[in-house]
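To whoever picks this up:

The parser on our side crashed when reading a file containing two proteins. I've narrowed it down to the boundary between the first structure block and the second sequence. Both blocks are reproduced below exactly, byte for byte. First block:
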Amino acid sequence: MIYLTDFDNPLEALPPSKKIKVRITKLLNRPPVYLTAEEKWILIGTLLNLFGANFDWEKLDLFLIWGQKDLDHLKLIQKLVNAISGAQSRAYYDDSECVWRLEYS
């Protein structure tokens, strides 16, 4: 049983995984027309996370892991994500992490 101690911000009392689930559920219960670009970005990040990408919930960065550097593939994904979310992202290969990265901006 979870007891909420902070009634101004009840999500603070929840563990991180539960906070994410509550946040996503709230977004899914709202009509898409009322979602902001950032909220759409979060939903896209969640979807891609389910298919193997890593989504950083704090920075809203999306990490894609491929075996080769394929800039054309990355640019296509970036255009699709931007078109769906209405946001502009920055896409690049992060040599230090050896991953493709999409940053919300």
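<<boundary where parser fails>>
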Amino acid sequence: MSSHFEDVLSLEQAFRTVQSLSIHDRDVHVRKGLLFDALDTIAGIRKPDFDEMCMLTKARQALSEVEGAMDERTGDVLLPRAKAAVAALEEFQEGFFLPSRIVENGLRVPGKNGDEVIPLEKATREYLRILRNAGHSFRGDPKGDTYKNARTRALLASHEGHIPPELPDLAYLYLLRLLAHPENLRRRPAGNNN
């Protein structure tokens, strides 16, 4: 019973956060924070997790699922904002520009054993996680200059930093997906939300 109550509270929180995204349509900083709050909340009650929701292939898949779950007239009303969010994620992914880091197959970043190349989709996901975690600070690990700190700096320096104003509506897309497929609601194991 209590887990159901927790899920209901989490759903209410997701709705309120997405509603706040609509209200704060001109404040990109506030919308960015609300995006991360909403994705964390949705990830806490439903698959996929935060990182997957920041991937263009997953966002396109979610949009396709939502489009398939509603008739055309309903889609005409509900989908423009979701489609704009997916387009914004694609635009954001194209924001990696640093010639010394861009390679044919993606972005060159520090890894545990030296430089590695990661696809731009993964770089985007990692960059968005950095922004999410930056609510605590961009400073990294205070115990030393680990490869993670170097990777964070490389990702931040490699991107133009522009966040399309429609990007926070990814939360709206994933809330629509949740509404379109409520049968997929499930509890996530505690501590599995990074």
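After patching the parser it read the second block fine. The chain is about 60% helix and 5% strand. Helices lie at 2-23, 28-45, 50-53, 56-68, 72-93, 120-133, 147-158, 170-180.
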